[in-house]
Structure to design on (145 residues):
């Protein structure tokens, strides 16, 4: 991509502004579809936008801030829905796991970027989002039974 430092910094700032605005919107606006569908849409669009961004359209990388924005809050609501009485323990466990996995992700992407390139290492993102989408679908299907 060969971005200048100024352009890269601008894009990072816009990414976080979009994430902030998106989370704010989802705080006051309830999606008209179920939690599972909302989570699936977030995962799918984030994956598509990341693929587009990694394929040469960097503003799509920026726009993933908006597509990822609702996921965390919706995921916590989904855990509360699934675990009901045990939701506080489930959410605490999920937050602890998420904290650990963020560190592991940064370490993993850092190591991959050392061996390959940062652009190639960032493909972990779409792969992880697809795995998350499959896991969400399988979890939802098992809840129906």
């Amino acid at each position: 991509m060969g971005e200048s430092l100024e352009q890269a910094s601008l894009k990072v700032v816009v990414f976080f502004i979009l994430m902030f605005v998106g989370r704010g919107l989802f705080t006051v606006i309830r999606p008209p579809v179920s939690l599972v569908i909302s989570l699936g849409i977030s995962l799918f669009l984030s994956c598509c936008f990341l693929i587009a961004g990694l394929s040469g359209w960097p503003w799509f990388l920026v726009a993933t801030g908006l597509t990822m924005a609702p996921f965390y809050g919706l995921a916590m609501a989904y855990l509360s829905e699934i675990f009901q009485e045990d939701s506080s323990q489930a959410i605490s466990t999920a937050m602890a796991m998420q904290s650990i996995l963020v560190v592991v992700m940064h370490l993993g992407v850092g190591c991959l970027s050392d061996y390959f390139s940062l652009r190639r290492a960032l493909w972990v993102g779409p792969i992880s989002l697809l795995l998350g989408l499959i896991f969400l679908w399988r979890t939802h299907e098992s809840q129906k039974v």
